Amino acid sequence: MRTPINEAREAPEEEMISAEVSKRTIVVPGEIIVEGDDYLPGEGARREGEKVVASRFGLGEIAGRVVKVIPMSGAYVPRRNNVVLGRVTDITFNGWLLDLDCPGSGFLPIAESPRFINQHEMDQFLAIGDIAAVKIWSIKGRGIDLTLKGKGLGKLEGGFIFRINASRVPRIIGREGSMINLIKDNTHCQITVGQNGWVWISGESTKDELRARKAVEYIANNVQITGLTDHMEEWFTKN
Amino acid sequence: MVLKRVSGRKATEMRPMIAKVGVVPNADGSAIFAFGNSIAIAAVYGPRQLHPQHMQDPSTGILRVTYDLLSFSVSDRKKPGPSRRSQEISKVIEWSLLPVLDLKEFPNTVVDVQVYIPQADASTRVAAINAASMALAHAGLPMKDLVTAVSVGKLDKDLVVDVDKDEEDFEGGEGPTDFPMAKIAQSEAFTLLQLDGKIPPESVKKALAMGSDACNEVYEVQKKALKEFV
Fold it and tell me: What's the alpha-carbon Rg for chain B, to the nearest Å?
């Protein structure tokens, strides 16, 4: 039995919350986040003379000297080492092509599979339409290379998948997986969340699975609540 | 002489504006923007792989805008499907948005913006630009600033801001004048200037100043809508 995924960790910015972090505010492109020479523009921010300006829509955050904008919406942009869920769209002589719900399709070479696979029987392992949890190994100019080597990666059998917005994934997983473990404990389901916003759920009964899906969608729609893990513990007593 | 506007508005008074983001659940970014009875709904899809392949640009992503009136948006039914007018407006909207967008991070991709007008009462192209700009921001794309747009009209010799259908069809005096403009919100850089009708050169500066002030008002509405998104 495959181990449920833990690789799709919460984005690092969520883990590094320190006393220095300011309250987050929503910023629009072109809005001044902070003024002063001391600050360094991070992701989603840029410097314009004295000012640090948002270059995208999201939550502006000042962590020490670094100023960045955390996405709240938008399409998934693939990054190296992300664990994502993909659907097999084609089988070539040396690997599989996966649709990852982002620009450019992912390529999973046959050599990356955990055991030997006969080139003529590749569809025995992953057929067209199958779902797999994979890790982004590298992103080159054209195409994304994937790997299956890692904990919790592999074909996802049974259950069902659905989509949420990729920017909500860190909240679904929670700090060090606290939220996802809470859902797993309360619903007795296996859940895999890809950074691309695809969620796979498989449980003993459809009732459990739907309850888990409801929980995930509830979190995705209520990311702004502070103390969400405690809130969800209460939610599970009612739902 | 100062002509009274049919709507009873002051020369610099705009119609009530409505703005909201996240109105199309299946899009990566979306927004609705209305000037009174002119409503525009914009949906952004992408960045996504561009087909046909020969249109791909390996140095940057491209922007593709589709603007159209829905057939029931005007009193004489508009024949559905693209027309010369809608293609032209799609193109000018695209050009008005491009200066603030930076798609260099997304080579070989396309960002599709679809703007539809479910109800038209003049100034639809500027409403469309406002909606599209908000939808692009909502899609999380790298942008320098928002784009805000407004139309300035002329009733005989008097300049008025935010033209409605009655004013667009004004036949008295020097005839109807519609002067749509778009600018980068926090600068005085205009990204769209069109003129339908006649305007004396000395009035152009005044029209631009009026438009610029009105754009600042629009910007506040857009900003508020984006900030209210949860």
Answer: 17
For A83-156, CATH gives 2.40.50.140
Residue of chain A whose Cα is closest to the Cα of B58: A141
Exposure of A207 by Cβ count < 10 A (0-12 exposed, 13-18 middle, 19+ buried)? Answer: exposed
Q: Does the pLDDT at position A18 exceed 50? A: no
Shortest CA gap A198–chain B (Å): 14
Instruction: Please state the pTM of the whole predicted model.
Output: 0.91
pLDDT tens for each residue of B6-28: 899 999 999 999 999 999 999 99
Query: Based on C-alpha coordinates, what's the Rg of chain A?
Result: 20
CA distance B93 to B34: 16
Between chains, do A57 and B46 touch, taking CB under 8 Å as contact? no
Distance CA A1, CA B105 (A): 40
The per-residue b/e assignment along B203-226, b for 16 or more CB within 10 angstroms, e otherwise, is beeebbebbbebbebbbebbbebb
Domains of chain B, each with CATH number or no CATH: 17-225 (3.30.230.70)
Strands B29-35 and B38-49, bridge-based pairing: antiparallel
Give the right CATH number for A160-238 from 3.40.1000.20, 3.40.50.300, 3.30.530.20, 3.30.1370.10: 3.30.1370.10
Complex confidence, ipTM? 0.92
Q: Which of B22, B49, B143 sits opposite A29 (nearest CB)?
A: B143
Amino acid at A183: I
Q: Which residues of B touch A44 (CB under 8 A)?
A: 142
Instruction: Compute the distance between CA of residue A19 and CA of residue A202 in angstroms, rounded to an integer.
Output: 39
User: Check: CATH 2.40.50.100 for A12-71?
Assistant: yes
